[in-house]
Structures are given as C-alpha cells and as structure tokens.
Automatic annotation (TrEMBL):
Phylogenetic lineage: Bacteria, Pseudomonadati, Bacteroidota, Cytophagia, Cytophagales
Name of protein: Alpha/beta fold hydrolase
Pfam families named in the record: Abhydrolase_1
AB hydrolase-1 domain segment(s): 62-309
Native source organism of the sequence: Larkinella bovis
Tree of life domain: Bacteria
Classification via InterPro entries: AB_hydrolase_1, AB_hydrolase_fold, AB_hydrolase_sf, Epox_hydrolase-like
Gene Ontology molecular function, alphabetical: hydrolase activity
Keyword Chaperone attributed: no
UniProt keyword terms in alphabetical order: Hydrolase, Signal
Signal peptide as annotated in the record: 1-23
Length: 322
C-alpha cells in the first residue's frame, strides 16, 4: 500500500503545481490543463503557458495552434476537441505577452516568439508538426515556417493578418500613444471591436469578449496593456507579406470572405478603409505567391471561421491535414 501511494505522489504534485500556476495567472479557466515552460528572455525569468492535449487513439501527428493578437489558447477549444477525436495531439501555447503566460517588458518580435515556440517543441521532444495559425498567429506561423522549415510538415493560415504591409498606408502611432489607448479599454470597447469580426453578432460570441476583458481586472493590467501596445508595433513594423514565396511547406489559406480586418483601421479615412483589408482579393494574391498553396474561400464568413462556422472550417482543415 505504501508503494502504491508513492507511485501516485508525482502525479498529485504535478496536478497541484498546475493548479497553483493557474491560480496565479489569468482568471479564465481553460478547457484543458495548463502547463508552463520556464524561459529567460533579456535576463528576465519568463513563463510560457501551454496546453498539451493527447488523444486516446493517436495517429502519430501533432498540430501546433497559434492564436491571434486579441485572443489566447482558450478560443481553440472546439478545434482541439476535433483534433483529439481524430487522433491528433494538440500543442496550444499562449505566446509570451498573452493569456496565462508572462507579460514581460521586452523587445517583441516574431522571430523571438518563433524561437520561444521552437524551444517549447524541443522540450516536448517534437521534431515535426503541422501548424494552424489564425490572425496575428498567421504572421507568427509564417515566420516560424521560414525559420524552421524542417519542423513544419504543413501550414494552415486562417484569415491571417499581415497579407498587406500596414506601415505603407496606416499612419504611424508611437508606442506611448498605443499604450494610452490600451489602458483606456473597457469591456464594451472590446465588444465593439470584436463585432467587426462577424457579419452578424450572436450572443455566443460574448464568451470571447469575457475572456479578453478578464485582463482588465488583472493585477498586472499595466504590463498587459504595455505588451499589447508593443505587439501592435511588432505587427506594424515587421511585415511577412514579402516572404510568402519563400515558404517551403504545403500551405492552406482558409479565408472568410466577409473579413475586412486592418490593423490600425480606425486611423484610416473611410476611402482608405474601403481600399484595404479586402480578404477575397488578398487570399487569391497570397496563394499565387506560394510555391505549394491551396485556397479555401468561405462565403459569408468573417475573421474567425473556426468560431463562426466550425463545420466548414474543420472540413477544410481535415481534408488538408489528411
């Protein structure tokens, strides 16, 4: 009996460490246990949160899911369920600066985020993955695939931002200006922005507003707001749209045809707004740049297909992964 008790002790300690870590971070309860990778960035100790969901009947394949700027790993829950049911292991990080990860004051770059993500995969002993990347995650997924082409078996870009170079037409704002804007955020301002993601707003979408607004009550909200401001600058200053032709993995673009997202859109005139963020054209234009590319267009769908139309999205994803 004593021996059996000691066998359970490491498992109980692991569960306790996960629970304590979750209690110390965002108040949002994630759909699967959250683990942490310890990193040192610019001499600062940093923790990178992630979910690692293993299927009961594995097919030997792993999918890395990369979230957008106004999101974190939480919003992948339906996709994780589908991947799990179909035998795929899911690795779902909160990038450093988001969600349950640390929000350090560092220089943010897509290269750094990609290197953090590669470190996570190396720690887990994963040498190859398929990458599913949404919104800002599409820019990160592109950079990751460019830096580590041997690691990426397939790349899926779901309504990625960065299909055009925002700094060529969006007026510049300083980090300080963006920080003040982030500090002034409210649940309603988040709701109004998220309404632009969908052709028709539904009560079901309020859950993602709740998750984003949970940051407003965080003890380190100023650090979160600063990270949000700095990562806005990262998106603005570090385009990937000139490098799609260099991608080596087979790449699928899933593009909701009603999406009109532009980072910094509120700074544009109405005329300029009408000329940019045209995802039906941007999807085709990007696909033409790819060496091995496929485009799936979803009529009537906005910026987050996996939330608005999960069945259509998952069919396209499944067909490509198989």
């Amino acid at each position: 009996m004593r021996t059996r008790g000691f066998r359970w002790l490491p498992f109980l300690l692991l569960c306790l460490s996960v629970q304590v870590a979750m209690a110390q971070s965002s108040g949002v309860e994630y759909p699967y246990p959250v683990h942490y990778l310890n990193l040192t960035i610019e001499s600062k100790p940093v923790r990178m949160a992630y979910m690692d969901v293993k299927p009961a009947q594995p097919n030997g394949k792993t999918v890395l899911l990369l979230h957008g700027k106004n999101f974190n790993g939480y919003y992948w829950k339906t996709v994780i369920q589908w991947l799990n049911a179909n035998g795929y292991r899911s690795i779902v990080p909160d990038q450093v600066g988001w969600g349950k990860s640390s929000h350090p004051d560092i220089h943010y770059s897509f290269h750094r985020l990609a290197a953090n993500t590669k470190k996570l995969l190396d720690t887990l002993g994963l040498t190859t993955v398929s990458v599913l990347a949404h919104s800002m995650g599409g820019m990160l997924g592109t950079r990751f695939a460019l830096m580590y082409p041997e690691t990426v078996e397939k790349l899926v870009l779901e309504n990625p931002i960065g299909l055009e170079d925002y700094k060529t037409f969006v007026p510049y704002q300083t980090i300080e200006q963006q920080f003040q804007k982030e500090k002034a955020a409210t649940p309603d301002s988040y709701r109004q922005y998220q309404k632009s993601y969908y052709p028709v707003w539904k009560p079901d979408y309020e859950d993602l507003v709740r998750v984003q607004a949970s940051d407003l009550k965080a003890p380190d909200f100023n650090a979160i707001a600063w990270a949000n401001a700095v990562t806005y600058q990262m998106i603005y200053e570090q385009p990937v749209c000139y490098e799609f032709g260099l991608l080596k993995p087979p790449t699928l673009l899933i593009i909701g045809q009603e999406d009109r997202t532009v980072v910094g859109k509120a700074l544009l005139t109405k005329t300029a707004q009408a000329q940019h963020g045209l995802y039906p054209e941007l999807g085709k234009q990007t696909t033409r740049q790819l060496k091995t590319g496929k485009l799936v267009e979803l009529p009537g769908v906005g910026h987050i297909p996996h939330i608005q139309e999960p069945r259509q999205f998952l069919k396209a994803l499944g067909d490509f992964l198989r």
